[in-house]
Amino acid sequence: MSEFLKSVYRSFDKAAQFTNIHKGLLEQIRVSNAVYRINFPVRFGNSYRVIEAYRVQHSHHRLPTKGGIRYSPTVNQEEVEALAALMTYKCAIVDVPFGGAKGGVKINPRELSDKQLERVTRRYTMELLRRNFIGPAIDVPAPDYGTGPKVMAWILDTYMTFKIGELNAAACVTGKPVAQQGIRGRKEATGRGVYYGLREYMQLKSEMKRLGLTPGTKGKTVVVQGLGNVGSHFARIAHEEGEMKIIGVVEMEGSFYNPDGIDIPALLRYRKEKGTIEGFEGVQKLPKQDDALYLECDVLVPAALEGVIHSGNMKKIKAKIIAEAANGPLTMEADDFLTKKGVAILPDVYLNAGGVTVSYFEWLKNISHVRFGRLEKRFQEQHSGQMIDLIEEITGKRVTKRDKQFIIKGADEIDIVRSGLEETMVTAFYQVYEVFKRRKHVNDLRTAAFITALQKIANDYLALRIFP
Ligand code: NAD
Questions:
Q1: Ligand 1 pocket check: which of 74, 102, 145 to mutate, most ligand atoms within 8 Å of Cβ?
Q2: Residue 467: what pLDDT?
Q3: Low-confidence spans in the chain with pLDDT less than 50
Q4: What are the backbone dihedrals phi and psi of residue 345, each rounded to the nearest 5 degrees, phi first?
Q5: In this structure, which residue's CA is closest to atom 35 in ligand 1?
Q6: pTM over 0.90
Q7: How far apart are CA 464 and CA 458, in angstroms?
Q8: How far apart, in whole angstroms, are the C-alpha atoms of residue 231 and residue 119?
Q9: CA of 316: how far to CAs of 226, 290, 312, 433, in Å?
């Protein structure tokens, strides 16, 4: 069994012993409910390539199932199973009423042209359709490593071609471009959620005291690995809203460092334009690929792939907090070693749940056929305006134009999405933290997060009366 799947099972088993869930029910929660493995041909020019792909629906206790699609040359069944299982627990932790799923296509998107990628995506979607593995009430994919809004738009278009007249067709996939029935705030959602979770943790006085830090994010030093969708948005939001100091970044082209803090928006603009960090003036390049991972810093944010911190490099990690933006970035040995060393590990299964949270909002928008804020925005503005007029009349004092504009502004879709995401991440954080504080023998947040998830899923099964 792969290291990654083993580590998910181990977290499950560790948490299960703290619950009184029936053994049979635990087994049902643990296993993948349906695994679809496909090999399909795609024509590239004059030749054909056979593509290996998967869709795993880990848990049918709630429907639809939900989870991203990964395009990577290292995709394999056990990796997809591990990721699908994490989705089930993630959805439960943040009260998203879905079962977990994941998809994987074994290709390197960097080596394919847009046309080739589109062909692979459309064929993969057709394969899912043939087996009833996609649909607004069945299984709803989203972006993951190597995929984004463009791929989601191809999936929607293919689905709609075969499901003419299906009223809720747009809800068959999330993470779509805003202009194609997506939702504002989905692209940044995972990174933003990581920031909210980290911010809540860093406000805890007792935890910060244990780590030798003052509470709050301001001025704290951070290293980020991976400036893709999750890492880049996290870095920007931590820099702009958290006033954190990003001192190091690791990408495919190497490790980059600036002890005074990197100008993240400028670096992201530069990388978007040039396709690399090489040559960006505000940083110095470190000699080896992963050198920045080992910098002295307050927070390390792995936001690339699983297994990047392992027995071979765990002893070099100097961060006080590891915020798991990626799925499974620590191997079991690294997790044990760093936990014992006193490093605070904010687990993936909670911390990167912002993506699926806003995907849920997008699905809600699609099945309700109305943009958030559309109905109430003007009413809110008029109501607040009248309140201010009344206050001015009673007090005889004037509210400044700037304050007035700020107070009467009704909520747009992006405001509602961000506030819903913040509410979700903060509420889930305290639910997990409560378990961590209350349970005597639970000494890590990952186990606390899994206990939270298992209890919610078991309650669902019990409500269904499948188990006594
Ligand atoms: P992405 O493809 O947009 O970005 C990944 C980035 O990591 C790329 O820029 C890539 O060059 C870089 N990278 C890969 N290997 C690296 C290495 N060894 N060192 C340094 N950089 C490396 O992917 P993403 O969507 O940002 O996903 C990243 C992680 O977050 C994955 O583990 C994914 O499962 C997880 N995740 C993503 C979402 C989402 O909404 N996209 C949601 C939850 C979890």
A1: 145
A2: 67
A3: none
A4: -115, 115
A5: 326
A6: yes
A7: 10
A8: 28
A9: 19, 11, 9, 28
For residue 227, give the ligand 1 atom closest to its CA: 9
Tokens of 172: 């068959």
3-state secondary structure 220-271: CEEEEECCCHHHHHHHHHHHHCCCCEEEEEEECCEEEECCCCCCHHHHHHHH
Out of 81, 229, 322, give the residue to mutate to test ligand 1, the one with the largest number of ligand atoms within 8 Å of its CB.
Answer: 229
183 CB near ligand 1 (under 6 Å): no
Is residue 256 within 8 Å of residue 262, measured between CB atoms? yes
* Euclidean distance between CA atoms 357 and 378, whole angstroms: 26
Tokens of 252: 């495919």
List phi, psi (to 5°) of 375: -75, -35
Q: Which pLDDT does position 1 carry in this prediction?
A: 87
Query: Each residue of 187-219: b (16+ CB within 10 Å) or e?
Result: bbbbbbbbbbbbbbbbebeebbeebebeeebee
* H or E segment and range at residue 407: helix 401-408
* Spatial separation of the C-alpha atoms in residues 132 and 64, rounded to whole Å: 12
- Residue 355 alpha carbon to ligand 1 centre in Å: 13
Reported as a single tens digit per residue, the pLDDT across 254-289 is: 999 999 999 999 999 999 999 999 999 999 999 999
Note whether 429 and 396 are within 8 A (CB): no
Give the position of tokens 């948005």: 233
Q: From the CA of 348, give the closest atom in ligand 1.
A: 44
pLDDT at 463: 85
So what's the pLDDT on residue 464?
77
Ligand 1 in reach of 303 Cβ (< 6 A): yes
Q: pLDDT at position 468, please?
A: 62
Using N-to-C axis directions, what is the helix angle for 354-368 and 186-202, rounded to 10°? 140
C-beta 326 within 6 A of ligand 1: yes
Per-residue pLDDT tens digits for 59-99: 999 999 999 999 999 999 999 999 999 999 999 999 999 99
> For residue 420, how far is the Cα from the chain centroid?
15
Q: How far is the CA of 226 from the centre of ligand 1 (A)?
A: 6
